[in-house]
Design brief:
The chain has 13 helices and 17 strands. The chain has 417 residues and is of the alpha/beta class. The strands form three sheets. Strands 1, 2, 7, 8, 9, 10, 16 and 17 form an eight-stranded mixed beta sheet that branches. Strands 5-4-12-13-14-11-15 form a seven-stranded mixed beta sheet. A hairpin with a 5-residue loop joins strand 4 and strand 5. Helix 2 packs parallel to helix 5, helix 3 packs parallel to helix 11 and helix 11 packs antiparallel against helix 12. The radius of gyration is 22 Å and the shape is globular.
Length: 417
């Protein structure tokens, strides 16, 4: 992890602070990417992160060409490409069947370690951009001055012209905006990383294995490291909310009886500290059409806006796209202009221009995330459907909506900063 003096400081403050230009809640991938995009456009911001240090829960993240195009705009793509091999395609197989479905990737796809991604993004930020150990307790909006007021666990009251929630599926900012709660699937994903000093035998292909009640995905990161995800439909009660990595590993191995020995060996030899477990959740696609993702000078991005199941591998890339688009829109405003407290005509004009910029951001992103959410939702429903008839109907809907374009979502360009 980068040291605090490089890109992040834990800055304890009490009382009311100065008026900030942009305040970002959440120091994960989306929050850091948004901060970096704004920095490139010359807009300073402060990131509030509730953890005591950079977090990389989830171990690995697959990024398709849409994500790499966004990283190019953030000027970190070449640095990260050196840490992840290009994937050539996918092999899908039921462990009880010899038939293998092969698919080649037509565009760039790589899997990076989440720690590499968040550390790289943070390293390119100015010192003091991130305030760790800072939990947002309450949010209010001054309708007269038209700025947000955020109260935090360290006793600070922070005012900001722009508030962006990048705080994940359980977003405080999303709740402030009145977004519907996320929904949960009866599926749990155990994730981890395995380092093999002598190299692995999986080549540069994404391996997807299907078993009874469990789906296993293995993705090479480099020649010696693989990322894996074991998605289960049933868990022992004592494990459903566990954070004990050894227990998570044990339960995953028990569910994987009958899997190939080389795959089991990956789970056995994993970096135990990288193991995590999470129930899969999503925002309902129909809510994407009507939900107010912006109010005044407050908006959301990343999982706070469009959390989805991992079935099309686009959650991370979509978050990076959000960062580029929101920075591009805000750069068209005078967010840095010194309009003290926004209580005069200049301040009101400034706030109005910011509101228009955020509306433009939401309008541009809504169609994109609706398409992704629908496809991810339908794929998830196929997995959890209780009858073969329902599965057939869902697959038919997928075929009609995305016929011949099942992977076209990855070949998307969010544009330049």
């Amino acid at each position: 992890m980068p040291e605090a003096g490089i890109a992040a400081t834990k800055e304890m403050a009490t009382g009311e602070e100065k008026l900030h230009g942009v305040l970002i809640v959440g120091g994960g991938i989306c929050g850091l990417a948004t901060a970096l995009a704004l920095h490139i456009k010359g807009i300073d911001c402060l990131v509030l992160e509730k953890a005591e240090s950079l977090r990389a829960t989830g171990a690995g993240i697959s990024l398709k060409v849409s994500g790499w195009r966004a990283l190019e705009q953030l000027k970190v793509s070449e640095e990260l490409r050196k840490l992840a091999v290009p994937l050539t395609g996918m092999s899908k197989k039921n462990i009880n069947d010899d038939k293998v479905i092969e698919a080649s990737y037509r565009t760039e796809c790589r899997c990076v370690k989440r720690s590499d991604l968040v550390e790289t993004l943070a390293r390119h930020l100015p010192g003091g951009s991130i305030r760790f150990g800072c939990q947002v307790e309450a949010i209010s909006f001054d309708a007269v001055a038209r700025y947000s007021v955020v109260s935090t666990s360290d006793g600070s009251t922070i005012r900001a012209k722009v508030l962006i929630g990048c705080d994940g599926s359980n977003s405080v900012v999303a709740k402030f905006l009145g977004l519907k709660p996320v929904r949960f699937l009866p599926l749990w994903a155990a994730r981890g990383l395995t380092y093999m000093p002598d190299g692995h035998s999986f080549g540069n292909r994404f391996l997807h294995l299907l078993g009874e009640g469990i789906s296993f995905r293995l993705v090479p990161v480099d020649d010696k490291t693989v990322y894996f995800s074991a998605v289960q439909s049933q868990l022992p009660k004592e494990c459903a909310s566990s954070r004990d990595p050894a227990l998570i590993q044990q339960v995953a191995l028990q569910a994987m009886q009958g899997y190939p020995e080389d795959v089991l060996d990956v789970v056995r030899r994993c970096d135990i500290a990288s193991m995590s477990l999470a129930q899969l959740c999503y925002r309902a696609p129909w809510n994407m059409v009507l939900q107010p993702f912006q109010e005044g000078t407050v908006t959301v991005a990343g999982d706070a806006m469009h959390v989805m199941g991992p079935f099309i591998g686009q959650g991370g890339s979509a978050s990076l796209e959000d960062a580029v688009v929101i920075a591009r829109c805000l750069a068209k405003t005078d967010v840095l202009a010194a309009a003290a407290d926004n209580d005069d005509d200049d301040g009101r004009k400034q706030a109005k221009s910011i509101e228009e910029a955020l509306r433009s951001y939401v309008k541009e992103r809504r169609g994109r995330i609706l398409r992704l959410s629908v496809q991810a939702f339908l794929n998830g429903q196929v997995i959890v459907a209780s009858s073969e008839l329902k599965k057939v109907l869902l697959r038919a809907v997928l075929a009609v909506l995305f016929r011949g374009n099942w992977d076209s979502h990855g070949d998307y360009d969010c544009g330049s900063l």
